[in-house]
Amino acid sequence: MVGGLIRLWLEKRKFKSEGRRKEVIDNGVLYASGMIAGEGIVGILLAIFAVIGIDLSLGGILGNWGGLAFFAALVAVMLLFMFGGKKNKK
Predict the structure, then answer these.
(1) Residue 53: which domain range?
(2) What angle do the packed helices 2-12 and 63-83 form, to 10 degrees?
(3) Reported pTM
(4) What is the DSSP letter of 56?
(5) How many CB atoms lie within 10 A of CB 62?
(6) CA–CA distance, 48 with 81 (Å, rounded to integer)
């Protein structure tokens, strides 16, 4: 849902060129695709750890606030990846 809101915000945002808008959106799609693939790999690793009996919860230290902080960091990194790259000077 957050990804859809970011996309909507980008669609309404004014860029100096249409090419830059497409570049930013393509960078976001590329980053999000990598995150989805990474999520699948981590899910497999967590399943393996569960079968082996390894506990990664750190005694419940992270909890909901830790998850929220990690999610906010992911959104910030995604925006930096989209807007922080080299700008083509055309």
Answers:
(1) 20-83
(2) 30
(3) 0.54
(4) -
(5) 14
(6) 31
With tokens 């999000």, the residue in question is: 32
Q: Give the single-character DSSP code of 13.
A: S
Q: Are 18 and 68 in contact (CB under 8 A)?
A: no
- Identify whether 27 is part of a domain: yes
Q: What is the spatial distance between Cα 32 and Cα 17, in angstroms, rounded to a whole number?
A: 23
Alpha-carbon distance values, 7 to 11, 25, 33, 53, 84 (Å): 6, 7, 14, 40, 17
Give the model confidence (pLDDT) of 67-90 as tens digits: 888 889 988 888 887 777 665 554
Q: Give a yes or no: residue 34 inside a domain.
A: yes
Residue 28, helix vs strand vs coil: helix
